[in-house]
Structures are given as C-alpha cells and as structure tokens.
Write a structure and sequence with these properties.
The chain is built from 1 helix and 32 strands. It has one helix at residues 205-214; strands at residues 26-27, 32-34, 40-43, 47-50, 60-64, 69-74, 89-95, 98-99, 107-108, 112-114, 116-122, 127-137, 148-157, 165-172, 175-183, 188-193, 200-204, 223-235, 241-247, 250-251, 272-281, 284-293, 299-300, 303-307, 312-318, 321-325, 328-332, 339-340, 345-354, 365-366, 369-370, 372-373. The strands form 6 sheets. Strands 1, 3, 4, 7, 8, 9, 12, 13, 14, 15, 16 and 18 form a 12-stranded mixed beta sheet that branches. The two termini are 36 Å apart.
C-alpha cells in the first residue's frame, strides 16, 4: 500500500530541537536519527533503513540502531478508511533506485532456492499494521512501482484493513493467515493477515511468493526486487520498533541437499498424509502438494514417490527437487524443509503440461510408506 514517491535528493530538516537528517545512501554509525521525508541509511553492511513518510506532510522521525530502528516522532494522522501516513522500514534489495549494499536482487523467482527471513518487533498502542512488504515485477525493475506487492501483516491495531477483500485462508510457514486480494490503482496486492499479533517470526519468504504464484498473480519468470519490513501507521506509533531483522536470498534454483539422513516412518502404520490440489487449464496445470507427518517420530529428510497419469509432464517446480521418469515422479526436500516433526507439514508445487483430460495421482509413498489422502 506504499505510494512512496521518493525525493531525488535529500535535504536537511531542523525541527523541534536538534534533529539529524541523513542523506539517501548514508551509513549509520551508532544510533542515527532520520527525520527527512525519504531519508535513509545503511546498517550491517547489508540493509537499508528508510523513513519513507510518503502520505503526510507532518513530521516523522526514526532512530536507527545497528540492528533495526524505532519511531521516535509521529505527528501525522489519517482516517482509517484510507491509506496510512508512511512506511518506515528496513529492506534488502532495491527500492526506487536505492539498493542495499551487495544485494543480489532483482532475481527471477525460478532462480531462487530460498529466502530465509527473521524479525523481532516491539509493539505499542496506536492504529497501525506491522508488515513485511515483498515486491515483484515482470522485469528486473529497480525504480518506481512494481506490479505485484505481497504484504504479510504480523500485527493489526485499530479499525484498519488490507487493500481489497478477503478471498480465503492459507496455512503457510506453520501459521494460518486470512488472505486478502485487491489493487490500489498502481499495483496488485495480496495480503496475508495473522489472526493475532506475532512479535517475532522466522520463515522462508519464498513460501508466500510461491502461494502468490499458485494463485496466478505472478509466474516463475517474474523478478523479486525487494523484501521490506516495518510499520504502516495511521495514528500514533511512537515506540514501535524493529528490534532485529535478517534477510537473505539464496540463488541457484532447487539444489538438492547432500548427505541428508532419512528417518523412515514407523513400519506398519500410515505415518503421512498427502493433500494434492491442482489448478488446470486447456493444456497445463499447477499442482500444490502438502505433505504432513502423522507419525510419532521426526522425519529428517523426505522423499515422496507417485505416478502421474498419462499426458502430464512437469516443466518446473518449487520448494522441492522434483524429477520425472516416464510417469514416475520423485520429490525430495530442499535444505530448509527436510525436517518434519510429528504433526508438522510442508508443501511444494510444480507446473506441468497437460495432453488430454486431467486426473490426479491415485497414491503416494513417503520414504517408502503409503500415505493417506488429505
């Protein structure tokens, strides 16, 4: 929901005492205060922290630390049936030509094997959301607005709501989310809203990107340009903080793990459930496969085997190494989703060509044991 029309040059501001305005592209040493509208600085040799006060002329200041930032002044206010006043945030990648140091973004989705993320927040009163903002575009765009925005709302305070309307629910990264979909007039938005406040969260951002792709909003050929995290305040916000933030993007596609031990499910029991969902069209389909450990032992490394009906040929896959020989399909975990504790699940997917009528696989085995159908 950001319409951040960034200034082409930064100007110092002096207001209400001694305030430091950091120019775009500066580097934070010790604590640094930014009050300039689009002022930013870099931290950790890897991230950019930005004030990004795009929706109000009222003053806003942030204090940047070596690991994050906090809002120290928030004079702006906006009605809750409209847009927020700003998006103070920390990011990895490129935003309006401002790129974080050494970033490997933009990168095509099909070339990303994982995007491990971690954040810790401090919450206070007010009307705001705390959100990840993931931007994607059909081209490797480093300036202006991208065509697709994914928002992950980890906290929502007050009578505010994401852009668009609810379209269902999803279980991603071990949590349930309410999914919203819409457009703000300049880009499409899919939002994932947590039912209650999440103060800290570690996950793979690719899980949300893959779900967005499975909904037909992007393709594997699109480019990830930036991953951001911060706050959208409507009213108040002083004291809100990103205490820590970690983000990486690992390239190389779906590289199979090496030396991963495998723990077979207990013999004699069905210790897994597979849920297989497909979205079909005339000559192709995408499949979303969820594997759940229903046994009593942790699975450390998994291999799922099954047969595709005649006329189905896999062309690309995500969240697993998927190979096909004739009708036989083998799907193996990647290095970040190979451990399934009892009751845990993971999902992967693929796109396939379709010649003839569609039908789903009839049976699955996980590490040699038959799985129930979900």
């Amino acid at each position: 929901m950001k319409r951040s029309l960034r200034a082409l040059a930064a100007a110092g501001l002096l207001a209400a005492g001694s305030i430091v305005a950091v120019a775009l592209g500066g580097t934070a040493s010790a604590d640094t205060q930014i009050c300039e509208q689009y002022g930013s600085t870099t931290i950790g040799g890897k991230y950019v922290v930005q004030n990004n006060r795009w929706g109000t002329s009222a003053q806003q200041c942030i204090n940047v630390t070596s690991t994050g930032f906090s809002i120290t002044r928030a004079d702006g206010s906006a009605p809750t049936n409209g847009a927020p006043v700003s998006y103070p945030s920390i990011f990895f990648g490129c935003h309006y030509t401002n790129c974080s140091p050494g970033t490997n973004l933009p990168a095509q989705v099909k070339n990303i094997s994982s995007a491990p993320s971690s954040i810790s927040f401090n919450y206070v009163g007010g009307t705001y959301d705390a959100a990840y903002d993931i931007w994607l575009d059909p081209s490797p765009k480093k300036d202006g607005v991208n065509q697709m925005e994914i928002m992950i709302w980890l906290n929502r305070q007050g009578s505010i709501q994401p852009i668009g309307s609810p379209v269902g629910n999803a279980n991603i990264a071990g949590r349930n989310w309410e999914v919203w979909r819409g457009s703000n007039g300049s880009n499409n938005v899919i939002s994932y809203v947590a039912p209650s406040a999440v103060a800290s969260f570690s996950f793979d951002a690719m899980a949300f990107i893959n779900d967005t792709r499975n909904r037909g909003a992007i393709t594997n050929d699109w480019y990830l340009t930036s991953i951001q995290a911060g706050f959208e305040p409507w009213q108040g916000g002083v004291g809100l903080a990103v205490n820590s933030f970690s983000q990486s993007v690992n390239l190389g596609g779906n590289t199979p793990p090496t030396g991963t031990p495998t723990t077979p499910p207990p013999s004699g029991n069905t210790a897994c459930t597979v849920t297989y969902k497909a979205n079909t069209w005339n000559n192709g389909f995408t499949a979303d496969v969820t594997v759940k450990n229903t046994g009593n032992s942790t699975i450390n490394g998994w291999t799922l085997n099954y047969n595709l009906p005649s006329g189905q040929t896999i062309t690309s896959a995500w969240n697993a190494t998927v190979t096909q020989s004739g009708s036989a399909v083998t799907a193996r975990n990647l290095n970040y989703n190979g451990t399934l504790s009892p009751g845990a699940s993971t999902n992967f997917g693929y796109q396939a060509n379709l010649n003839g009528s569609y039908s789903a696989p009839s049976s699955f085995t996980l590490n040699g044991a038959s799985c129930a159908r979900g």
